[in-house]
Amino acid sequence: MIYSTSPSSGTKWRAGDKRTVTWDTNVEGGPIPDDYKGTIKLGYLDPKDGPSEHLKWELASEFDLNKGSQVVTLPNDLETKRTYIIVLMGDSGNASPQFTITAAR
User: Which of 48, 71, 88, 95 has the fewest CB atoms lying closer than 10 Å?
Assistant: First the structure.
């Protein structure tokens, strides 16, 4: 399993900004193999509708998971929420802690 290291629970981003998502490149049994590709999705949690992650935005795909980071550009039209999550998909989907994105100015 791959663990996201950024964003973390205290993170605050702004819609439209470029940000770097980071993760641990060591998994059970050693480093992430060279041929593993990843996808980063942005979603949010809503306590009114259960465990759905609302993964509406794909921010990056087909990058090498073993590099440990990926720059992404947030959509300009995001609403302000404190329940956004980043999900890193590769060997499995791994969600970050909830964090805040504020609407663009």
Answer: 48
For residue 97, pLDDT beyond 90 = no
Q: Where are the domains of the chain?
A: 4-102
Question: To which residue do tokens 């964003």 refer?
Answer: 7
What six digits make up the tokens of 41? 């999705």
Which position has the token pair 């993170």?
Answer: 11
What dotted CATH number matches 4-102? 2.60.40.3720
pLDDT digits (tens, 9 = 90+) for 45-95: 998 887 889 999 999 999 999 999 999 999 999 999 999 999 999 866 688
Give Cβ neighbours of residue 30 (< 8 Å, ≥ 6 apart).
none
What is the CB-side half-sphere exposure of residue 7 using CA atoms within 13 A?
Answer: 27
Task: Indicate the pTM of the whole model.
Answer: 0.88
Cis, peptide link before residue 47, omega less than 30° from 0: no
